[in-house]
Amino acid sequence: KRKMTDREAFLTASIIWGTLVVVSTEALSPAALLNRASLSFFWGAAAAGLLFYAGRTGGNIRFSFQIESPARLTVFSVGAVLFCLAVTAFWAAPNTADSMTYHLSRVMHWTQNQSVDYYPTHILRQLFMKPWAEYAILHFQILSGGDSWANFVQWFSLAGCAVGVSLAASLLGADGRAQAFAALFVVTLPMAILQASSTQNDLVVSFWIIAFVVETLLFRKNGRAGHAFLAAACLGLAALTKPTAYLCLFFFGFWLVFFAWEKKGWKSLRILGAGALIFVLINAADYRRGWELFGSPMASRLDNYTNTVLTPQSFTSNVVRNLAIHWGTPWRALNQSLEGGVGRLHEWLGIGASDPRTTMVPTKFHVEELSLNEDLAGNPLHFAMIAVFFVLFFIQKKQRLFSWYVTTVTAGFFLFCAVLTWQPFHSRLHLPVFVLLAPALAMIFAGSSRRWMTGILGCLLFAASFYWIGWNQFRPLVGEQSIFRSSRTEQYFRNRPWLEKPYTALAGHIREAGYGSVGLVFNEVDMEYPLWILLKERGVS
Description:
Blueprint: E1 4-5, H1 6-28, H2 36-57, E2 61-62, H3 69-91, H4 97-113, H5 125-128, H6 132-144, H7 152-171, H8 176-187, H9 190-195, H10 202-222, H11 225-241, H12 244-264, H13 268-294, H14 312-324, H15 332-349, H16 380-395, H17 400-419, H18 426-429, H19 431-445, H20 451-470, H21 488-492, H22 500-513, H23 529-537
Parallel strand pairs: 1-2
Helix pairs in contact: 1-6, 1-7, 1-11, 3-7, 3-8, 3-20, 4-6, 7-8, 7-10, 7-19, 8-19, 8-20, 10-11, 10-12, 10-19, 11-12, 11-13, 12-13, 12-17, 14-15, 16-19, 17-19, 22-23
């Protein structure tokens, strides 16, 4: 049997684990058995079964963790960034605005109900937003009894993205230097750094997306049906994490179909049929719940998320505005000049820069300053590198696979712009595009005639990363509001500190009154999760 490399084994194990999270959650939920005892038994049995299988097969993993000398410093830099982010993820309390509203609030409801079935709530995002990332957090919180490990779902996903892009670069023909640089490019993305210690899901979906691409490339390389099945599982897990996965992987899906036909001919129909079944089974229960309550497997509302007009002018507007998200600088005057330039372009196009048909209401277009906010931060340095990359891409000879790879990623970004209304938070949704471009960019910059570029750019990326690592707006390592100088309770309210006193008073009142049950009425943007934590600290369940 062919032996897997260590990186292939890492991705395979991750995909199996991600699928088992879905299987266990959906299997235990109908009987209201999502509790510590049931999950402990399930994961114990799963571990025993996998160990038994590994023993029977004798193992088929080839550990060959050897790093070329020129790449060792780059790999060390990747490890240093991930280590700092792991410290933040462990020490900091979850406090992302969306997490306080629905990401973690839904986890508390599921834990209380021991089921992921829909429940009464005024915050509908707790119901219709795709749940895989929260399923993983649910398992960690039930098994550990708290949220100390909740941030690690995103952190692990960033580490997985680093592994994925390095392997993708290898499959595209890159040497060790380029593979390491691709990983460094990803882990130093400002938005990735800020999210790696949070409980959002953009890094999670990015991981499943790059894993899908890697498994598709591995299928092209050796024609083993197992890679096609793993790719289908990645597609299912990505779709169960965030609907934008459909847009990012729409054109890559044709790759899998084409390679299947190329390798297997008519036999590919069985492989693709089995892959489609894997995808459906992973998403079936979530689709059913969405259909029963909202009449749609996707969401209860799409009007504010999708464009209501598609013309050359509106498409150009969305492309330019999505790119402009990453133009932010520390200088307000320059940002205003850039914003003015975009406004003049829109005047020439004959469309408003904040046209409600292509803009999420009530947001308005503007160029955000260099930000430390995980909802708004752009990736200006990385964007500049991508701009240079495309210039080099068009002027030099390229292998066909490499060209098609870049074209497919670009087409996915254009589809994103054509479908989704612009919003200032799109930098989060752009993470998969940056991740997918990393292998190709690394190959261009690490070419034999430009190897010096990776050294200089690597040092620049590594040094710049500590600005976002150290001064994360809501989870800083340094300064007066450092996570090491703030209580965990205080950190939960870092987004809205004025709510800490009234929430604490409310939790104390509920505790003293001894209510048997409490109904919660919040609007779509209210913070619910901290109240759960305050009540738990006071022994109220």
